[in-house]
Amino acid sequence: MKSNRIAWGLLAPTLLVLGFAGLLPFFYVVYVGFFNWNVFSRVAGLVYTGADNYRRLVFDADFLASIGRSVRFTFWAVSIEMILGMGLAQSLMRDFKGKGFFRAVYALPLTVAPIAVGATWRLLTMPGMGPLPYYLKQIGFDYNLGRYPAHAFATTVLMDVWHWTPFVTLTFLAGLTALPKEPFEQAMVDGANRWQILRHLTLPMLRPVILTALFLRIMDALRIVDEVFMLTGGGPGMHTHYVGIFVWRVVFPKTDYGYGSAMSVLLLYFTIVLCWLLLTSITQARREAGT
Amino acid sequence: MRWSTARKRLGLALTYVVWIALTLATLFPIYWMFLVSTRSRVELFGNFQLYPSGFFVENFIRPLFRDVYGRYLLNSLIISTGNTLLVAILAILATYALSRYRIPGDQNIFFWTITNRMAPPAAFMLPMFLLYSRILRLGNWQLFDTHIGLILAYCVFNLPFAIWLLKGIVDGIPVDLDEAAMVDGASVIQVIWQVIVPLAAPGIAITALLSWIFAWNEYLFAATLTSVNARTITTGLAEFVTVVGTNWGEMAAMATVCLAPALLFLSLVQRYIVVGLTFGAVRE
Asked: Is residue A34 part of a domain?
């Protein structure tokens, strides 16, 4: 009994801070979501409207479109990162001179502030000033991310790949290093080729690690804001207004707080469901892999 | 036999080609940014030289000393360091409790950690902004635009992260050690301070460093919860692109300043970055 009191005493400051900064906003946003609260409306303060905000949300084409864009972005960025990451992790499994150096330089983007990543890529791709449009023009390709939506989209994907493939690679590498050696030696003896080993041994055994990386990357790509905002400002038009940018740049300035809250709640709900689904599958994969 | 050595050589050559290309691709955007930061406005446009032709220090001097960026930098330092200290102290206490006592519901902590860390910032920003600027205020004092406000806000992602990372480390310290100290009459706080902290010091250092980097890099909370007094360097960087007639040289200079700590600390955290970013789910 006494020891439990000590435990709660030690936990109390943490619970207090997290309760304040984590739980309070959560409950508050759920609460405000049921009200109409617009600073610029005729009626001051909060007006209870039940589920109206949520009803509006389902038919909000702009909001749904921004979710669609986010999903498309996430699909491309994460797929490329996964495939590249697997290939590069495999290549880091063999020994070659200077491997440590390459690895260290390659990990550089991981600690760089997303906002600075966006800034560097903006300088790189800006029409008239960046080297990318200039040199692409030299070889006859008219690259302009301020004009062509497809270029802007591809650039955001490329930037994300630049920023996060090292993470996927190093995670896979850690997973590969931890795998037991015997099954692989046995497969070599049996004359399996590289593709068969990858398909039937490496990938199944690495499943928990792959799912973990996949999970973290999906969650991060879905909530991307800083980098894209710095790079394109969401443009041209609305073409790179991914959901985070949409909520932040479109809903926020309108000071339509009730509606914005409903949107936040919906995003949180999706996050929790996705987290839960992915975590369950990771746990299951771990159990099957017996680790 | 000769065929297979030739193939091996080719494979090695290919590996080098790939990794040299990757190194260049990784460094080039950062190098270019640095180049831009050395050029004055006049030298900037239509200049695609890949080497510096001088150093226009004004790009660094003016924003830092004659504009607000010096203060932004100081704010970033205060907030990241303050947040790291707070997180480190709270996390050590909480981790010890979670590691040594049976607490109902501690199974759910990982889930909570993950959801807190993964929640779209867009979802937390609005309620935080409303609470900070409208609800939680005492007379004229409000949490909005204060250092302490951001320090507390950053606990949302850093504190669960630190607890999760430290738990693995404290779990690894034998209970016999703290029991021995208890028998000698040490209080719980003394045990933590004299037994746990020294043994877990490397882990605490890494956790603190990663927390510091996360706080330093944070942008969205800083952008929504501050306006003048507590603006951070990341927010300042974003201000460059929202104004008309951006001075790109100065932006590049401030971006260089903004990512300097990442470069400095990289060698220290490099080995732990995977553990840190996967919440200890994948260990090297």
From this structure: no
